[in-house]
Amino acid sequence: MSIRDQFNKHSLHPWADLPALGGDQSTPIIVRGEGVYIYDESGHRMLDGPAGMWCMQTGYGRQEIADAVSAQIMRLGYSTAFSVINPLEVELAARIAANTPGDLNRVYFTTGGSTAVDSALRLCQLANNIKGARQRKHILSRDKAYHGSTFLSASVTGKERDKTAMDTLQEYVHFLSAPCQYYHEREMSEQDFCDYLIKELEDKILELGAENIMCFIAEPILGSGGVIVPPLDYNRRCWETVKKYGIVYIADEVVTAFGRLGHWFASQEVFGVIPDIIVFAKGVTSGYVPMGGFAVSESFMHEISGEQAHGNIFSNGYTWSANPVSCAAALASWDIIEREGLLQHVLEVGPYFQQQLRTLLDIPLVGDVRGTGLMAAIEMRLENDAAGDALLAQDYTIGELVDNYCHQFGLLVRPLINVCIMSPPLIITRDQVDDMVTALRKALLLAQSDLENLRTSSGK
């Protein structure tokens, strides 16, 4: 039985298309990776446009990370953070704390981004209960935000096209507008649009009552929602607004941390924000082994520790919290990023990456190209009257066509319905950026031709 046959018989993937379960014939079977490239079972090479899932910062086949992981497995393959300390978690926490803004000096490790968001939200719940503010239950998030797949993190996720029959917490979660002018009145100036968004945030705070709001959670750049880059000063003004009302600010840097925007953390360096909590994952280990976590401010923890804890504990944790093997991978990845100057490299190659992708705007199928650093999105659209389920089906068709053609031309993209996500490994060169854009142009033009033929044949 072939790998695909066994997959169709036994596997259930994330975001599985249940109506088509067991009938997959197109998902690539990847068997090897090297640098910025991955290879399928036939040996076909593809540039990894999304870097796995935003996470392969240093690229594939890093011997240093393999050696560090192997050595740590032989030295100490497991330890539990529930009852012992391993030296690598201390070293990694110290490095993270040295590079976070403000007094975010306390680091908590989890298994990934979803559990990190979930844990940060639970810490906020605990803190309010300890301080006698049990009415603080409401959470502010944004449309098109993505924060994870646990019950709590999925509840604060605002991707409307991902909402299915699964339950989420709705009573206490409130979604503000996505800070993307492409989805709003494009005649507005960027400043006016930012003013509108900040007023919406403040109006919601006043409507709910600041004393009832637990936190505001925000990705600096909305990643899986379509690489939405907010207006200039939006993040800083959101932070200033929520802090004016005494509300906790959580920056979800699962995607933007560890070099994606050219800095270890982007909150202060890029956006002028000093959050109460920063959530991280993905690039912390360059994707080699699972890890996530958050850094929380000393001032936040001071209010709920020592005598002010009133005997409470933070009863939240995971079997693999601060796993020594994951810590070894993270430290090895960190060393590579520093030694090879990858943060500076992103600052230099990122603008070229964005500039070259914007050349695709001359293709009618391309509605928008947006991004910053080494993360970008190409949104495709057709000018017609489709709406509702018909529009969704049409957008899926567009994404699948572009995805399939990109495969043929040696490029793996991450099609989020009608949006192509691009977030290559930090080691990508200008020549490889050019190869990526060339493949995208060919794929977009062929997909556009196919869609025009379909419309002609259907008489539309």
**How much helical structure, as a percent, in the residues?**
40-55%
CATH class of the largest domain: Alpha Beta
Query: What sort of overall outline do the alpha carbons produce when their principal axes are compared?
Result: globular
Please give the CATH architecture of the largest domain.
3-Layer(aba) Sandwich
CATH superfamily of the largest domain: Type I PLP-dependent aspartate aminotransferase-like (Major domain)
Count of DSSP strands: 15
User: Which sequence of strands runs across the widest sheet?
Assistant: 4-10-9-8-7-5-6
Count every helix, treating DSSP H or I runs of 4 or more residues as helices: 14
CATH topology-level name of the largest domain = Aspartate Aminotransferase, domain 2
End-to-end C-alpha gap: 44 Å
**Total number of domains:** 2
* Rg: 22 Å
Q: How would a crystallographer describe the biggest sheet?
A: 7 strands, mixed
Give average pLDDT, whole number.
95
Uncertain spans: none
Proportion of residues in β-strands: 15-25%
The ordered H/E elements are HEEEHHHEHEHEHEHEHEEHHHEEHEEEH
Structural class based on helices, strands and sheet pairing: alpha/beta
List keywords for this structure.
globular; Aspartate Aminotransferase, domain 1; 460 residues; alpha/beta; Aspartate Aminotransferase, domain 2; 7-stranded mixed sheet
